[in-house]
Please model this.
Amino acid sequence: MKRKIFTILMVGFVVLGLTGCGNALKKDKFKIREAETKSVKFTDFDNGLIKLKVPEGWKVDVLGDYIHYIVKAYNPEKPIYQFYFNLKVEGFNKSEDSKSWYQRFYPDSPFAKTSVIATKDTEGYFKIFNDMGKLNNTAAFTFPELNDFTVTENLGNGVIGGDILRATFKDKDGTLGDGVFTAYVYDAGAYYVTENIMSGKKIDNYPLSVYDTIFITAPRDEFVNWEDVLNTVAGSLEFTDTFLNGFNQQQDAVMKNFQSIRNICNQISDGIMDSWNKRSASFDIMSQKQSDATLGYERVYDTETNEVYKAYNGFTDDYDGERYKSISDNMYTKGISGYIEKD
Model:
């Protein structure tokens, strides 16, 4: 009888042990889904004038003559993932007085329509960037929209001139975006005209030009993860000999000072990368925490690889292992390697 009871007890312990092990294993069951940026494959774009590396599936649109050339590379499914470059755009007014003067005396002049960059700086240009599309959109080329453009940090001076700005905006669909923007607003001098005979007020009517506009953007929650991919696109732009032959015939005095027009985007993107690496962490920490709270994520890192993952909310409560641990605040500035999901 005692032997039978002992056997029953042993079976009970085994069953309880297996049940306990089953629960522990269940807690550790999860799957890792790789981040989209980890599987990006680049393809070569070459139209005889420029060469560019873009993620597979992206579209490239171009517009303009040699010195005004514009390149827009983007994901046609989600155009907010984009790279934009413009060598030169000109004809901007320095003041509302200047524009009003043209509208009064030369209403058919382009200057009666072009925007005012009163601050004569990079931020001022991007504040009126949407007017580029209003005046120049065609069936073949549509300018991006930068609505509610708001600078979150000035990252420093651009390589060619102007500032490198971190800014948020809304695209044409209302999606909140984040990006890095640079452009060189150039004032070639002054040309004064009289407002009218009665006032005698002098107005500077000499137009402003903007050189080397570049920006890379993604949805606000994704830019930290996509910055490296986007900057790779920007840095890969190269002008061919055919383009350079035409450009050299059209270039102006400012452009002659550029060190190497062939790889000018590479020079600028190096400056962007350097400024990006020196940026303040506070904005990313705040915005990424807000994003995780809204979307239901918590972040952990792999202690063996130091890679960061977005995990489902509650993962750290479920997980009994030692490999994945909650991140520190400064790790919010790193892109993620993937997502941890329930199996």
